[in-house]
Amino acid sequence: MKQQKLEVLGMVCPFPLIEAKQAIEALDSGDELVIDFDCTQATEAIPRWAAEAGHSVTNFEQIDDASWTITVQKK
Q1: Which DSSP state fits 33?
Q2: What PANTHER family does the record point to (predicted)?
Q3: Which of 1, 13, 16, 36 is deepest in the core (most CB within 10 A)?
């Protein structure tokens, strides 16, 4: 299993989600995508997309007042 980091800090929605969808396509099943973002809407949009796509969220935490990190494991 490998881990890839995706920094989308400063991007407004829906771009963090669009970038995440593109990045996870390049990964193999079981690999993880670590997404660092600061768009409030993505706190709902990214986990919802992951669930709908069948991926697992293995970590989701708030870094500070307006930034988060989420780890999505590809199905």
Answers
A1: E
A2: SULFUR CARRIER PROTEIN YEDF-RELATED
A3: 16
